[in-house]
Amino acid sequence: QDIMVCQALGVMGSYFEGIGEIDSMIVCYEKALDSAMRIRHPEHVARISTFYAGYFIRMGRLGLGHELLHEAMERCREYGGRSLEMRYICTAMDFYAELGCWDIVAGLLDRTHVLRRLHSDDRYLKYFDTDLFSRRADEIEARFEMARGDVEGAEAIFERIEKAHLKSFHPADQVKLYHYWASGMVDNGLPQRAVDICRKGIEYSRRYSFDDWEARLLLLEARAEYSRGNIRASESILLQFDGVAESLSESLQEERIFRDGLMGRVELASGNIEEAFACLISALDGLVLYVTSTEASAHSYLLFEKFENLKDLFHDLVAYSPSLGYGVAVSYTHL
Fold first, then answer.
1. What is the mean pLDDT of the segment spanning 263-269?
2. pTM for the full predicted model
3. DSSP secondary structure string, 281-297?
């Protein structure tokens, strides 16, 4: 009975968050957590802690989210969750990968390898190996390999997961896979390969109406085309991004900042200095909103480092207008 109560309250809490009834969400989560702690149930204690972590991360409280994700993993282990812990390790790895904390990701990946080895006969692990949690760990390992420059090793993992997704029909996971795959290719200086992967992902996104992922993949394709020197193609794709993102007013906050920065580069390459400055100012305005929506912590500072590439645009614009460029640099430093 307690397990059924935990399951139902977790679902209700998630529903209440979705409709903005946060007080009701908290009541559901607290009751579920109390019940799960009372019976020392590894899955539901970790599950509710992870739900809480996701809520606080979305609210910009990254430090608290970090603590709750850590608690979810530790409670699951303490209460005898065995290989079930993989589910919560994967959630934590996603969080740290987004912050660029690859050393932490490497340590957590080692834990997944140990869990697979120690609990190879575990019914949970056998289930995961035919479902998505094991693939999630593999996908993050591929992203880790990309981050340290092992493109060949990462591609081998991505290709294996791609085949598994196609067989089991998980289009949402397939689209995310293409996004991370293409992102790694762009970051490792292989823009043509990135374009090919983006186009596969965009086709999937349109087929299944994943508008947010289509927008992200379009932005990656624009980055790749810019890296190839195809300025006009990059601009055209950015305009496609604008068309898709227009209907997604509540999301893509980071992507819109990157879009303005990249469009600034495109305008600068085309000799349109005033338009490039306008894009830079728009990116800064978006960055102000983004920064002020997160609490001051080491984690939010790491998140802020994603936008370090805007400095390059600042420096290039200084050559055309030292006074404006200096003013923008001061504003960035203030942030």
1. 93
2. 0.88
3. HHHHHHHHHHHHTS-SS
